[in-house]
Amino acid sequence: MSEDRSGSQSKSWLDKLFGAFSSDTDEPSSRSELLQFLSEVGPRLNLDQDAIAIIEGALEISDQQVREVMIPRSQVQAIQVDQRPEEYLPLILESAHSRYPVIDENLDEVLGILLAKDLLPLILQNDSERKRFDLREAIRPAMFIPESKRLNSLLKEFRETRNHMAVVIDEYGGTAGLVTIEDILEQIVGDIEDEHDTDEDEDIRELGDGQYAVSALTTIDDFNEHFSTDFSDEEFDTVGGLMIQRFGHMPRRQESTDFTGWRFTVLNADNRRIRQVQVCRLEDATGDAPPSEEHRAHISGE
């Protein structure tokens, strides 16, 4: 009797779900059809757009690789193992990250991960005790993964090992970047305000060396006024809209495009929208080629 009841309940639930379509409509046979199906029957099942977006994000991470969401090497903030606390504590206070890779001579030699909370005992130590503090004894083992690892697989591994950060290795064994559990969750639920996100209080913020962080919601008119440019705002009002037009798709982190003498690189984005962009004149870009009138887009590091 229990099996019949269970089967009856399952059948009733499926009938309710797939019966939301007309009887002459086939059941979804692919991911795209399933998403379309959910968007159409969502209101009848009390699924709002946010819930449908989360389902879509959960499905998409099985196709995404670590290289698409990682914090690139150029933005990794690391601590050298022979540094004294007074040398790296200012970095920790300024960046407010919770985890840092600890390296030997360069980023390709990651020795482990330092959790900022593991430095709390230093507060109670006197000067002589701090001088004897050995960073090698405080670091935890680092988790190393390839750039090609699938996000769904990494999320499962994070949960099983209780790690929150992994060092991403390229095909030559060098450090390509870092990835955190938050980077994966953002692909599912949207942006999470965490320690890796840049401050968006200012729409346009100078980073140095001719680089600027620009909020994707910055109006094109404000951008033109600030940089003395003349980008058209006839079709789009914001920098984010302009970038999507140029790419022809929703770009991912570190994807960049060069046009009209400028390079635009996505700093912060999820599968729904662009949040933060890094911009610089092509003449200030490292290893840059002469500007091209034709739209050129590439994934940084590939």
TrEMBL record:
Gene3D superfamilies for the chain: 3.30.465.10, CBS-domain (3.10.580.10)
SMART domains: CBS, CorC_HlyC
Boundaries of every CBS domain copy: 70-129, 138-198
GO MF annotation list: flavin adenine dinucleotide binding
GO cellular component, one term: plasma membrane
InterPro entries: CBS_dom, CBS_dom_sf, FAD-bd_PCMH-like_sf, FAD-bd_PCMH_sub2, Ion_transp-like_CBS, Transptr-assoc_dom
PROSITE patterns in alphabetical order: CBS
Keywords annotated in UniProt: CBS domain, Repeat
Primary role: Plays a role in the transport of magnesium and cobalt ions.
Family classification: Belongs to the UPF0053 family.
Name of the protein in question: Magnesium and cobalt efflux protein CorC
Organism of derivation: Cobetia crustatorum
